[in-house]
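Batch job 17 of 40 flagged for manual review because the log was empty.
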Amino acid sequence: PPLDLKQVEIIKGPVSTLFGGGAIAGVVNFISRTPKEKAEHSLLFNQSNIGQSNLGYFSSKRNKKMGYTFLGLVNNQQLFDVDKDDFTEVPKSFEFTLHPKLFIYPNEKTTFIIGNSFTKGDRKGGDVQVIKGKGDSFHQYFEENNTFRNITTAEWQKKVNDKKSLTIKQSLSIFDRHIEIPGYHFDGISYNSFTDVSYLSNLAAHSIVAGGNIV
């Protein structure tokens, strides 16, 4: 549930200066909410007739010098065998996300943001009897997918004046995946670092953005 979503931008055409060479055809940019002086709290619960339950919570608040946002998501899915053939149409799964952010305001023109997003998910589908722990010589097939992702972000924003601003962003991510089916096992881990610097200048009728990034 997009409880922390402030707005969505659809940007057409080559915008590699802002989002990297992979954005040559355009970008769908999701912008998160920022804290306000008035505290915000949102709670969302969904229940599906196929055995899915998910719970989402968002909270935010700021004062003169500091602020925070927090997003927590939990999703639990029971195995679902719609045609009773002992094979799952929807796998059994459990996933959760914790995403806190701290906002620091040293002065009216400077903002420093640090955050960490942690996500863990476990999925298992295939033969219903195997998933229930009752596998035998006939009931053997399963597909298991376990993932772990952690992304740490830091952002520094400086307003040079009313029309110009400088932004520096840094992110470090770790992604670990485990996949298993009968007779096959895969483990893989990926590390990624992304640094972005951009300078914005607002003119009378136009805006100019210059920047660069390193992956």
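Reviewer: the log was empty due to a logging misconfiguration, but the result itself is present. The radius of gyration is 22 Å. Unflagging and moving on to job 18.
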